[in-house]
Write a structure and sequence with these properties.
The chain has a single domain, classed as Sandwich (Jelly Rolls). Helix content is 29%, strand content 24%. It is built from eight helices and 14 strands. It has helices at residues 12-15, 29-45, 56-69, 118-123, 126-136, 200-207, 262-269, 271-285, and strands at 47-50, 74-80, 101-108, 142-143, 151-156, 162-165, 171-178, 182-183, 186-189, 215-217, 224-228, 233-236, 239-240, 245-253. Strands 1, 2, 3, 4, 5, 7, 11 and 14 form an eight-stranded antiparallel sheet that branches. The chain has a four-stranded antiparallel sheet with strand order 6-12-9-10, covered by helices on one side. A two-stranded antiparallel sheet has the order 8-13. Helix 2 crosses helix 5 and helix 7 (262-269) runs antiparallel to helix 8 (271-285).
Length: 286
């Protein structure tokens, strides 16, 4: 992809600090060097962290939109294992991978975020999608087509965190809209599994409470983070203080039209989505 022409202009050019992060031209000079740095970070560490990715006015806009929408969101309290699926009954009773964790958050699914919001416009930016593809070094990359999973806003209230889990797709992009007063740090075990295998020793050690091989870092509001969430076990430490930690999660996939299994959607989003899916099935069967 060459430099973006004026005719191809989209919202990314108004929302992103392009002087610092020249994602609109990744072929030339500073853009090419920046892309190479991001690619190296993903390869070497499993993540790429871009502080102050948003312009301040864009950050204020998206944070205000999220805070306005969150009172309409559900408070989810979901019990799930690290794979966001059912427990494998063949595992021994004392196997750490049989553990289920309580995830408690205020969460907006994609279908609850209006199309006119800056956040959804940013997610649908072709420039941003192309940048994510190039950083991940994929031949092709698409925004997730799932009506619930594609774009989420998650607020972790003081006293809560995000339990250990793998994401349902390889490439996960998060945008921190509001940082916690204290805590709320992103913690993960880089490249703990592949499509064929899992580093069970490292995973079991982490689930037993040994954090010595995990990576943890703090981020400020406006930070964009790209990481291999489908291949790196990860979570968020307990939020402290008086304000929630608010994050947008953008999901991508190498295949077009990707949707998530109903069982996983119900485990992630709870009763509202369960009722929607049940109603559709009843309508089809009726």
């Amino acid at each position: 992809m060459t430099a973006i022409s004026q005719a191809q202009r989209d919202v990314a050019l108004d929302f992103i600090d392009l002087d610092r992060y020249p994602i609109a031209d990744l072929e030339n000079n500073s853009g090419a060097a920046f892309l190479a740095e991001c690619q190296h970070s993903i390869e070497a560490k499993g993540w790429c962290n871009l502080e102050c990715f948003l312009r301040q006015d864009a950050l204020h806009k998206m944070n205000a939109e999220a805070n306005a929408l969150l009172p309409t969101a559900e408070v989810l309290r979901v019990k799930r294992n690290i794979y966001q699926g059912a427990i494998d009954p063949s595992l021994p009773d004392n196997d750490p991978r049989r553990k289920e964790f309580i995830h408690s958050a205020v969460q907006l699914a994609d279908d609850q975020i209006p199309a006119e919001t800056g956040l959804k416009q940013l997610y649908h930016s072709e420039i941003l999608t192309e940048f994510v593809r190039r950083v991940q070094m994929k031949d092709q990359l698409y925004r997730c087509a799932d009506e619930f999973q594609a774009l989420n806003v998650v607020a972790l209230q003081p006293g809560s965190g995000h339990a250990w889990h793998y994401d349902t797709s390889e490439c996960t992009v998060t945008l921190l809209l509001q940082a916690a007063d204290k805590g709320g740090e992103f913690t993960f075990l880089p490249n703990s599994r592949t499509d064929e295998d899992e580093d069970r020793e490292a995973v079991d050690r982490l689930l037993d409470g040994d954090m010595s091989h995990a990576q943890t870092f703090s981020r400020g509001a406006g930070t964009l983070t790209l990481f291999r969430g489908g291949y790196s076990l990860h979570g968020v430490t307990k939020v402290e203080g008086s304000h929630p930690r608010i994050t947008a999660t953008m999901t991508y996939d190498e295949q077009p039209g990707t949707v998530i299994d109903d069982e996983i959607s119900i485990r992630i989003y709870g009763k509202r989505v369960e009722d929607i899916l049940a109603s559709r099935k009843a309508g089809i069967s009726g």
